[in-house]
Write a structure and sequence with these properties.
YjbJ_sf, CsbD family protein, 2 helices, mainly alpha, CsbD, elongated
Amino acid sequence: MVDKDRVKGAAKDAAGTVQKEVGKLTGNDSMVAKGNANKAEGKLDKAAGHVKEAIRGEK
């Protein structure tokens, strides 16, 4: 069973990528920074999900 943190992290990572690219296209540096922050937060959530699964003995 996939941990909910992995799903949440993947969604944040994808949303951050979109936000970053829109910021680049519009020249909005603040949006690019927020997109990068969301991507980083998503990657941390995914990693937390992997750790939880490893502790439970799931693959």
